[in-house]
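dude i think i finally got it to work??
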Amino acid sequence: MGGYAVEIAITARKGDSERVAFFVGDSMRFGGKTVCCIASGPSLEASDCETIEKAGIPAIAVNSSWRMARFAEIVYAGDACWWTAYGAEIDIPAERWSCTRQAAQRFGVNHHPAHGEYNSGMRAIQFAIWQGASRILLLGYDCSLANGSHWHGDHERTKNPDAKKVAGWHRQFAQVAAEARATGVEVLNCSRETALICFPRLSLEEALCSFARCRD
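look at this
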């Protein structure tokens, strides 16, 4: 897949900025659509996934959340170690994507060109932008360990997040929020619980009602 790089300045601290390159795709599988990114925060519930499925909204399942969102079109995992430990367990007809060339080369998954520090939930948002989404709903983006590590409990064969890792997530999500604004993509955090403040909050029900009004 092709695409073109967009470079923007992300202000991290007063007087300090970082140049970040990300890719906008020319494939546009989600051109103009609302897409839901489903991460694995402990607030994610099966009823949330069922609501997305019934609404017919394309979904990107992050890491092991494909187990709850079995209708997802995409399974996205950035880390090669996740593909090593869990990739063979995927038994749904979803496309597999990763931002790491190692995963693409070793496991034959599709490669998403993206650069810089990351977490898989962040990269899933960037993937949706790259593929032309105009609106992105977030579920399971808790970005906190207050209620545990994941909705499925701790990973048994890969590392689990700690406080330092979570702090990095906040910085990375602030970056992708700036990218979304720069490209005119609306990102709404519909997670039941979240510590993220860089995206507007809206309940899933409110977001879907708003979506229905936009379509009328």
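The chain is about 30% helix and 20% strand.
im so relieved honestly
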